Automatic annotation (TrEMBL):
The keyword Signal applies. InterPro entries: DUF6801. Residues 1-37 form the signal peptide. It holds the Pfam family DUF6801. It comes from the Bacteria. This is DUF6801 domain-containing protein. Keywords: Signal. Residues 46-197 form the DUF6801 domain.
Length: 202
């Protein structure tokens, strides 16, 4: 679904994170009925070392269940395509990074009537080799287990990606400050449609 200078290399992960996390959470809360496929494109922006602000394009792929039951536990698979662009990849290459990984902490909000339910989501960033040239793109895949909480009112639930996330990045950089760092990021532009889908809760 945008910080500190040396943390920049991981910004794009966080951006991807927002999407993936939102996807995961949305799908989890939504549960078990017939699913409808959602392919949600979202852009994020962050400042990279030397090259400044760059746009990262992401697409979240998820099958949003049409219905779920209160108290039900579901496990929903999801995937996230991320393209950080050539300029960002050049920046990583410039500082000597050849591989990266880590995790993303983000969240989605499930709105049921006038009651919002915040769902934290943590996603692994796969170990990814930085290509010798060109853009850096990868697909993150995983699943999230979630139990629809008791006390939630029945009705239509709308799941949306929250606009902020934190990426915990690990790389093979020789500089310790670039080998393990956190990056805060935000959706850009902020008015993008972040709705992943709706689910009927009963």
């Amino acid at each position: 679904m945008k910080t500190m200078t040396q943390r920049v290399p991981g910004r794009f992960f966080a951006r991807m994170g927002v999407l993936a996390t939102a996807t995961a959470a949305a799908v989890t809360v939504l549960g078990a009925g017939v699913a409808s496929a959602a392919d949600k494109p979202l852009d994020f922006k962050g400042s990279f070392p030397l090259i400044g602000e760059q746009t990262v394009s992401t697409v979240v792929h998820v099958d949003v269940p049409e219905s779920a039951t209160i108290g039900q536990t579901v496990s929903v698979p999801f995937s996230l395509d991320a393209d950080v662009g050539t300029a960002a990849a050049d920046g990583l290459r410039l500082v000597g990074v050849t591989t990266l990984g880590g995790s993303i902490d983000a969240s989605v909000t499930v709105q049921i009537g006038d009651q919002p339910v915040a769902l934290p989501v943590s996603l692994p960033i796969p170990d990814t080799a930085i290509p010798d040239e060109g853009t850096l793109a990868f697909t993150a895949e995983g699943s999230v287990d979630f139990t629809v909480p008791e006390g939630v009112p029945a009705g239509e639930a709308t799941t949306s990606v929250d606009p902020e996330a934190v990426t915990h990045v690990t790389t093979d950089a020789s500089d310790p400050s670039l080998a393990n760092f956190d990056v805060n990021l935000a959706l850009d532009p902020a008015d993008q449609d972040t709705v992943l889908g709706t689910t009927q809760i009963s």
